[in-house]
Amino acid sequence: MKQSFTRVMLICIITATRVSADSLDAGLGVDRSSLSPEQIAARSARLEASTSFSLLRFSEALHAPARIFEPSIWRAIQSAARVYDLDPMMLAGMIFIESYGDPMAKSPTGPAGIAQLTKGSARELGLSVGRRVRIGTQSVKKTRWVGTGKNRRKVVQTVKQPVYKTLDERYVPERAIMAMARRVSSRRSWLGGNVDFAVAEYHMGAGRMAALLSAYFGRTVRVSDVPVEMRGAVMSYAELFWTNTPYFRPAVYVALDELNRVDYSPTYYFRVRQAMRLLEMYRQSPDAYAQFASTYQGRFGWSVLPSSQWSFVSEPIGGVLLGALRPGVLHQDVPERFVLLPDIASLFGVRAATSQMSAERSTIGSALFVAHQLKRLQRDRYSGFQITRMLEASFAGCADIATAASQRDCEEDGSEPLHSLGWAFDVPSAGLSKSEQRDLRFILTDLRQAGLITYVEDGANVFHVVRHPEHAAQFEQFYWDVMAGVVPVDPPRVASRE
After folding, report:
1. Nearest partner of 462 among 426, 487, 492, 436, judged by Cα
2. I need a labelling partner for 282 at 20 to 30 A (CA). Which of 6, 297, 316, 340 fits?
3. What is the C-alpha R_g of the chain?
4. Where are the beta strands (DSSP E) in 3-57?
5. Residue 216 CA to chain centroid, in angstroms?
6. Whether the Cβ atoms of residue 414 and residue 222 lie closer than 8 Å to each other
7. DSSP of 422-451
């Protein structure tokens, strides 16, 4: 009974973080040039939900809520929030991301403590870093020689010496949390009273934020100019984040893309919001949180793609599917579960490396949907792309997930387990121009941020793509629509503010 209740609680809480996608096209790709406030809110909610993998992937995430809600830490958070008129759960969400609530956390790049402050930021916020403080005295025996010749002798004296300690208040939770709140409050004022921009700036930094605003406003905005520019601006951080493509506000797109390549700072605000939901889940039911978080623990160590893919799959579902996939059986099952890439794919510009590529209909639908979105974005510039791997007709994958996890030759590029299920496809970037690679990456990233797919681009310049099982039915419907000629191969131009 308790297990059933926990499961219901989990479903209810997580459902609240997801947005129903009746239409796969809602606000995607080229449509980002004309999003309504409602679509911006929907896109934000879908991105937030999709960040659970990055938030919960590592084992420290299992213990983070307990650390954050430990009485002394939670009191410090509430106190700082009261002093600076902030939401305590927002500060808690930031702490979740910064340190998983560990007061002694230390980044290899320098930031330290529960708020992960650099030495420079800490000093700017009034914390002591590297200051020697006298904490008492100690008795020390010192030996010296006195006299000369036959009268020379050793004298032992006991003297008092001061004892010093190097103080780094970044490791003092009460001080560090108050400094974090002070920083957010200060940046909120600097950014025209917008707390969403202030949260984003905490990870991005003032200089990068000014550069991003320069791209958005189309003119140079120095750090000292930001207060004036933002006082007259009526926009949210989500609006700045979403309303751009490689062809609409391209300077904003380039600025965000460059920051994402460095440290993913543009998505920090959305991750904080999702962390707040996860912490609220823990407050309602620690068991539900533990159950949910455990599904995101990497089964493949540091390998991002297979771990991300398998966080899509519950253990029971994964066990049933993998149990059915035995060498010599899969090919017999193709007529029921798998189909060959259809000839109509060529009308979408999708070219197959071999004639025997197969996958589930939903996977083929997702590949055609990527092509559809890319064509809508590029219009007359569209030339399509090649798929080099789906599921080989002669199955040579791994028999089960345990084998895949332990034998690297089964994993190959990190996506073999999902290829074996017929859920994945590969697209090489070789042969694509730089602008074509950029546009394909934009569409794949946009679909990933919508929670529809996941992908990685490996060192061999291959995009490994897998569709999300939650949207398999919609992708399969897209497949059937294509086969019936319902989806236009050459869609009409979409209204744009370009």
Report:
1. 426
2. 316
3. 28
4. none
5. 23
6. no
7. T-EEEEE-TTS-HHHHHHHHHHHHHHHHTT
To the question of pTM greater than 0.85 for the whole model, the response is: no
**pLDDT given at position 428:** 94
CB burial class (10 A; 0-12, 13-18, 19+) of residue 320? exposed
Picking from 237, 211, 241, the residue whose alpha carbon sits closest to that of residue 226 is 211
- Are 176 and 114 a contacting pair, CB within 8 Å? yes
Triad 55, 59, 65: Cα angle to 5°: 65
| Neighbouring-strand partners of residue 389 | 426
Contacts of 226 (CB under 8 A, 6+ apart): 190, 191, 206, 209, 210, 213
Bridge partners (DSSP) listed for residue 131: 167
Encoded tokens for 491: 């869609």
Q: Assign 157 to helix, strand or coil.
A: strand
Return the sign of the alpha-carbon dihedral for residues 491, 493, 495, 496: positive
- Amino acid identity of residue 165, one-letter, is K
Structure tokens given for 39 = 């679509």
Beta bridge partners of 139: 160
Contact indicator for 75, 307 with CB cutoff of 8 Å: no
Q: 215: closest CA among 151, 259, 167?
A: 259
Contacts (Cβ under 8 Å, ≥6 apart) of 136: 162, 163
What local confidence, expressed as pLDDT, does residue 98 receive?
Answer: 97
Beta-strand runs (E) in 274-392 = 339-340, 350-352, 358-359, 385-387
Q: Tell me what the mean pLDDT of segment 200-214 comes to.
A: 97
Q: Which two tokens stand for residue 394?
A: 């002669």
Kindly give, in sequence order, each residue whose CB lies less than 8 Å from that of residue 179, ignoring residues fewer than 6 positions away.
115, 117, 122, 125, 126, 127, 169
Contact between residue 121 and residue 183 where contact means Cβ atoms under 8 Å apart: yes
The CA distances from residue 96 to 32, 79, 490, in Å, are 30, 17, 46
Among the ranges 93-97, 391-395, 429-433, 490-494, which has the highest mean pLDDT value? Answer: 93-97
Lowest mean pLDDT among 22-36, 86-100, 102-116, 430-444: 22-36
- The DSSP code sequence of 101-139 is T-TT-B-TTS-BTTTTB-HHHHHHTT--EEEEEEEEEEE
Q: At what angle do helices 173-190 and 71-84 cross, to 10 degrees?
A: 30
| Residue 385, both tokens | 């792309």
